[in-house]
User: Fold this.
Amino acid sequence: AAGVIQSPRHLIKEKRETATLKCYPIPRHDTVYWYQQGPGQDPQFLISFYEKMQSDKGSIPDRFSAQQFSDYHSELNMSSLELGDSALYFCASSLGHNNEKLFFGSGTQLSVL
Amino acid sequence: QKEVEQDPGPLSVPEGAIVSLNCTYSNSAFQYFMWYRQYSRKGPELLMYTYSSGNKEDGRFTAQVDKSSKYISLFIRDSQPSDSATYLCAISYSSASKIIFGSGTRLSIRP
Assistant:
């Protein structure tokens, strides 16, 4: 069965650079969530989208922005990267707002040098 | 204070042992409780999903919720080396709201 696809798997950037992370949800899933997981930390909710509209917002820095496109894939744009942004970024998708049927991707490991 | 607190690991037990993992939460408004398993460098995978107090069993896994004491548990019977992973408890206000994770307990099952 198709799963949530995230790209790239690994990304290395320098401070003050920008990065774009992509998430392709499970087919027919219309809701996407982004989480940030620092080393040894729990996943922290960043932002979510339902039917291409932002549905909830968590601890997402102003330097970050995200959107969901007409094909339901989502992109997380990160600017002015800081060392502390180094983390594993997970995307999850569901059909409707249904956290019982939430599936996570394998994440993008971002390293900021 | 974090909204959900989880017993720190790491926890190491011999194969076949019963494992008990626990979390407490602070707000009685949370209604949905989950346990996720996360292998290294992988996304969290949902193990158990419960609503309301009581027990829910699925194979070797039992999730327990005590809303009166704001305490949730996951029991693993007949633990296997393949159960070695980080286990994250998670809570949410509703089935449609964001999930808030605990910090995770790293579990190691010794053959």
Summary: The two ends of chain A are 36 Å apart (CA to CA). The mean pLDDT of chain A is 94.
